[in-house]
Amino acid sequence: MTDPIDPIDPVALTQALVKCASVTPADEGALDVLSNTLEQLGFTCTRLPFSQEGTPDVDNLYARLGTASPNFCFAGHTDVVPPGAASDWSADPFQGEIKDGVLTGRGAVDMKGAIAAFCAAVSQFVKDDGGFVHSASPARGSISLLITGDEEGPSINGTKKMLAWLAENGETIDHCLVGEPTNRSSLGDMMKIGRRASLSAWVTVEGVQGHVAYPDRAKNPVPALMEILSRLTARTLDEGTNRFEPSNLEVTDIDVGNKAVNVIPARAVGRINIRFNDQQSSTDLRDWIEQVAKDVAAEMDRKAHVRFAGQGDAFYFEPGDFAGLVADAVEEETAQRPEYSTGGGTSDARFIKDVCPVAEFGLVGASMHKVDEQVSLKDLEALTRIYHSVLKRYFAPGSP
């Protein structure tokens, strides 16, 4: 059992979470830290571990304060990407060192800092408005957190399965705020009301291994793989829309597993990732990739097959009362109206949007996934005030 953290202090909680080296799919105590903090505030915490053959086991957390409707949910993740070489960092990536008003550590902005800020905002909200949780007062709703350990991973044993569990157990989410780092350069410049989708594909070409001096006795798979990737990257998928950036396909890895200089390899694998907008569908993209691989394999007398990962299509929410409520809170704190955007990568909002209206607002993402990922203490405290304002506005009479 970890020691309780003061739930009203977003800096201390961010540090405690960063110190948990929760590189996907490991948890390393991050959800214990969060559960202990939320239980101090009266939340009922339910751990939701999920597994599936061929995928890593993942632990998740659903926490709820109150039982009445509406249920305002904050969604996020405690898993992080690998830090890379620790020697490249100016501070230990899993210590949360603070220097000159900046906290450095893996997950500081993506997105342990936002989780800490929301917990601190809830703590302040409950302190200011104790009637929200006292049974003697009229119930005005519930606050919940949906926290996964699988957002940076395959996203199979995380949010999607948690949402299914909620439905099976009669839990309803009315609105959801996702705490991903949405801002480009300053807190308040951007929030997300939609996202492009993501599709990954592994293209494997099978050949016949042989000696490079006798190419007639072998079948080199590399030229065929190069031709497949060339045809895929040559296509302009679309020009984008007034809502979305253009779709883009990127080659992210090529591997033949061949350490010998004089051997024609038996197999070559290429990996691609597509970030696509609402002009494309995952079904059509899969069909196209498979057809290109099939055509090249036939032309070059090789065998090819494709494996895919990625779920869902792009989504967009027409800005309504909920997005406006969040934007009002941001503007109140930062004196700038956030731009509504669908740019950047994907997020678990792609699953939540099937359940309820969703918007995304978090920290500045300039350093996420980089060496020396960092957040200013000033931004952490400002984000806490923004989330506090969102809660006050949401649970005010007649809102959202």
SSE diagram, text form:
Elements: H1 10-18, H2 30-40, E1 44-47, E2 61-65, E3 71-77, E4 97-99, E5 102-104, H3 108-128, E6 142-148, H4 159-168, E7 175-178, E8 190-192, E9 194-195, E10 197-206, E11 210-211, H5 221-234, E12 248-255, E13 263-264, E14 267-276, H6 282-299, E15 303-309, E16 315-316, H7 321-334, E17 339-341, H8 349-352, E18 358-360, E19 374-376, H9 377-394
Parallel strand pairs: 3-6, 3-7, 7-18, 8-17
Antiparallel strand pairs: 1-2, 2-6, 4-5, 5-19, 9-16, 10-14, 10-15, 11-13, 12-14
Helix pairs in contact: 1-2, 1-3, 3-9, 5-6, 7-9
The tally of beta strands, per DSSP, is 19
List segments where confidence is low: pLDDT < 50 over at least 5 consecutive residues.
none
Q: Could you name the CATH topology of the largest domain?
A: Aminopeptidase
| Shape annotation | elongated
* CATH superfamily descriptor of the largest domain: Zn peptidases
CATH class of the largest domain: Alpha Beta
Number of domains: 2
Polypeptide structure, described:
This protein has 400 residues and is an alpha+beta fold. It has 2 domains: 10-195 and 314-394, Zn peptidases (Aminopeptidase, 3-Layer(aba) Sandwich); 197-309, Alpha-Beta Plaits. The chain has helices spanning 10-18, 30-40, 108-128, 159-168, 221-234, 282-299, 321-334, 349-352, 377-394; strands at 44-47, 61-65, 71-77, 97-99, 102-104, 142-148, 175-178, 190-192, 194-195, 197-206, 210-211, 248-255, 263-264, 267-276, 303-309, 315-316, 339-341, 358-360, 374-376. It has a 6-stranded mixed beta sheet with strand order 1-2-6-3-7-18, with helices on one face. Helix 7 packs across helix 9. The longest helix has 21 residues, at 108-128. 47% of the residues are buried.
